[in-house]
Write a structure and sequence with these properties.
3-stranded antiparallel beta sheet; 13 helices; 366 residues
């Protein structure tokens, strides 16, 4: 017979936690004294501990016949959602990419300032619209839409766990946003590359990454995470970053040009440590989004000062601006196979999002 807990720990009946110097475990003890399961994580790995705790609680509730969760607050539901996502196999169709989860966790920080201490079941559409309006007034309409999309995903997760009956985000009309129309011309790209070379170090690594993104028509994550084994005899092979759930992973091969080969060779030569990544940091690891953007902002500041001193115009841009710039240039040059470079199945997205030409030419009718 199991004795009463000496101190309440908030865990389900028969679920116990044991914290050692090197490992922490959650175990479920059956009436006959045997253990139904035991989940273990390193003591210092908070992410792993959160994952096994969430899984242990869910499995214990099933064994106890109490699968409906207590109606906690929204911040707790967010913790459970991220723990569940991180616990899924990396190739699971239900799991988000690590880069997406990292971005979601940053978005959650903003959301929880408003919704964190509210019970999920008490959130109403009017509260969501107020949030959207408030963020729009701050000039963050587009970001607010992404944040509410995350809130919707977390609340839908809560529905599956019995935390709330309906998802108040269903049917919400998001903020209207203007599509991006900016185009980074060759002069701006060349100035950034010139200043990056003058500065050297991390600036040069980022400059080469920007140039490679343009040459390969790639998304930011595809470049930041680019690994050496992607460089082959015929060119650079990249996994297409976005795909529908259940769809097979697709790849695109960007064949070698003299400049692309030069950029890749130089980037690899700059790595101070043995690294699997082409554009790694000083530790040989890929740059985080925040780390990359911090250095990029500084590089853009140096470029702005140089442009001012030289009396030329310059508008700052980001790594994500390279893909539409490349598409625009290639379409303008008459590229008939642009989807092979972008990895899209059709030209619809290319035409709607990436083609930034302001003047489109055509022959006269015969």
């Amino acid at each position: 017979m199991i004795g009463r807990r000496k101190s309440p720990d908030g865990l389900p009946f028969r679920l116990y936690v044991r914290a050692g110097k090197f490992k922490l475990s959650y175990s479920y003890k059956l009436p006959d004294g045997k253990y139904a399961f035991r989940l273990v994580a390193p003591s210092g790995d908070n992410d792993a501990i959160a994952r096994i705790k969430a899984e242990a609680i869910e499995r214990a509730n099933v064994l106890n016949g109490t699968t409906v969760e207590s109606r906690g607050e929204t911040d707790q539901l967010f913790q459970r959602y991220f723990a569940w996502q991180r616990s899924l196999p990396i190739d699971s169709e239900s799991r988000k990419a690590n880069s997406t989860l990292n971005e979601n966790e940053r978005e959650a920080t903003k959301l929880l300032k408003t919704f964190g201490k509210v019970q999920p079941g008490k959130i109403r559409p009017v509260h969501i619209y107020k949030y959207l309006d408030g963020r729009a007034a701050e000039g963050a309409s587009s970001k607010a839409n992404k944040e509410i999309a995350l809130l919707s995903a977390v609340l839908e997760f809560g529905r599956r766990k019995g935390v709330l009956e309906t998802n108040p985000c269903r049917g919400i009309k998001y903020n209207k946003t203007k599509p991006k129309t900016s185009y980074v011309d060759a002069a701006a790209r060349e100035l950034v590359m010139r200043v990056a070379r003058e500065r050297g170090g991390s600036y040069l690594v980022l400059g080469l990454c920007i140039r490679a993104a343009y040459l390969t028509v790639s998304r930011p994550d595809e470049m930041r995470q680019l690994m050496r084994h992607a460089i082959g005899a015929e060119g650079v092979q990249l996994a297409v970053g976005k795909r529908r759930k259940g769809a097979a992973q697709k790849f695109k091969l960007i064949e070698w040009s003299t400049e692309l080969r030069s950029v890749m060779d130089e980037a690899v030569s700059l790595q101070r440590t043995t690294s699997m990544y082409v554009f790694g940091n000083t530790d040989g690891q890929p740059y985080t989004v925040s780390g990359f953007n911090t250095i990029l902002r500084r590089l853009m500041e140096h470029c702005s000062k140089t442009a001012e001193n030289e009396g030329i115009s310059f508008t700052r841009f980001t790594l994500s601006d390279m893909r539409p710039a490349a598409v625009t240039d290639r379409v303008d040059e008459g590229d008939k196979f642009i989807t092979n470079a972008t990895g899209h199945n059709s030209e619809r997205m290319v035409k709607q999002v990436y083609d930034r030409r302001k003047v489109k030419s055509a022959r006269s009718t015969k």
